[in-house]
Amino acid sequence: MALDTKHEDLQSLRIDRSAYHDPQNGPAWARRYIIIGIAIVVLLGLFALAYRLLSTDPIEVEVSRATAETSGAGIGGVVLSATGYIVPHHKINVKSKVTGLVKWIGVEKGDKVKEGQVLVRLEDNEFRAQYEQQRGAAENAKAYLQELENGSRPEEIAQAQHNFDEAVATAGNDKLTLDRTKQLFAQGVLSRQSLDDATARYNADQARANSLERSLQLAKLGPRAEEIARAKGQVMQAEGAAAYAKTLLDATVIRAPVDGTILERTAEKGELITAQFASSAEGGPQGSIATLADLNDIQADLDIAQDDFAKLTPHQKAVVTVDAFPDLKYDGVIAEISPEANRQKATVEVKVQIKNPDSHLRPEMNTTVKFLADEPAKRATQESTGIFVPTTSVRSRDGKNIVLIAFNGKAVARGVQVISQRSNGVMVQGLVGGEDVITAGPQNLKDGDKIKIKGQS
Fold it and tell me: How many C-beta atoms lie closer than 10 Å to residue 360's C-beta?
């Protein structure tokens, strides 16, 4: 009996499968939902695969920020914006007046120097010897002039007098001898030759006495005025040659012509510096020592389009900024307007003097200059405002002007109206400012195309 009881208990633990339905004979609505779910999953997979296969790489473009500006004029209003470069007002190439080897150089690029400061010394042995030679010649000429101006010394006059007296006495003695010879010749005692010799000796002594008499007179009168003038001319010539030799000697010491900063050093110790010609070959003579400029006297050099030139006036005020430090602003004023235009570029060169330069400004920096108007402020409310964009960002489509904006990885077209032309862009209406307008990209770029900004990942 115990076994039967256990068998019945085990039979009660069996699973009754009759309560479950056969899947193939389940409800119809369940089978429909299952099929629809599977179809949706398959379709989504197909769509994802097709998107990956048909999607193209984004087009690389360049952009620029559109900025809002006032097109009208008022006190402080911007009438024109232009770009250019920072340049020194005066840039000096320091050169040598003489040719020689660099013996010593005392500056480096970027050094600040004072006017008259020694920059370079050249070897000067030859120049010093030439100067000493010319100085000696000048001293010799001056001594000769002084001798002429002082005239004959008393001793020289006394000597000339003695020589004259001696010649007169000799001539008198020869006269007596000649007279006796004539008498003896008449008596037939002496020959004709003796008479001729006595006559010749007397004539010679007489001529010598006359010559010494004139020398005595000249010694008493002193040198002629013309001779003194000629000696003075020789002195001036000798002193001039000595002075010229001195300038050549002094030129071997090259000094800074003005206060400033060394922009470039082009010579080294031992190199040949020439005043005549320069060579671009390695080891050839150099034509300059260094380039120097006063960085407290700098300007902005601009090329203004001829269409915008009428907006400017002499001494017009401006605000100057540089790309390197866009938050810094400098006061400026038009200092120079070129008297002629550039035919090829259709521009006029304008230079703006920077009134308050500092160490941030360096030559050849990119700069933006905004010219301010001097007209009453009330005109500012009468003229419309606009958005400044680069010229290359404006495109023509179907006879209308548009710009393409980079927004969320796509190119978005915006219709614009051009208000005015600027030297480096255009003023338009149709934007609010701050948009990234596309300035460089394919000509066939259109609204909705995927894009990638150059330089961004």
Answer: 11
Residue linked to tokens 């193939």: 24
CATH 2.40.420.20 domain extents, the chain: 54-71+384-457
Q: How many CB atoms lie within 10 A of CB 322?
A: 19
Domain topology for 54-71+384-457: 2.40.420
Residue 378 confidence (pLDDT): 42
Query: What is the tens place of the pLDDT at every residue in 322-367?
Result: 998 888 999 999 999 999 999 998 999 999 999 989 989 999 999 9
Taken in order 211, 212, 213, 216, the sign of the CA dihedral is positive
CA separation for the pair 329, 325 (Å, rounded): 9
CA separation for the pair 101, 124 (Å, rounded): 9
CATH 2.40.50.100 domain span(s) along the chain: 91-123+252-293
Range 279-304 burial, b when 16+ CB lie within 10 A, else e: eeeeeebbbbbbbbbbbeebbbbbbb
**CATH number corresponding to 130-246:** 1.10.287.470
**416 token code pair:** 């614009």
Task: Give the separation between CA 10 and CA 17, rounded to whole angstroms.
Answer: 16
Q: Is 76 left (phi over 0), alpha (psi -120 to 50) or beta?
A: left
CA–CA gap between residue 170 and residue 201 (Å, rounded): 10
Backbone angles phi, psi at 148, to 5 degrees: -70, -40
For the domain bounded by 91-123+252-293, which CATH number is listed? 2.40.50.100
Q: What is the chain's Cα-based Rg?
A: 54
Pull the structure tokens for residue 221: 């009168």
Query: pLDDT tens across 19-36, in order?
Result: 444 545 556 666 777 788
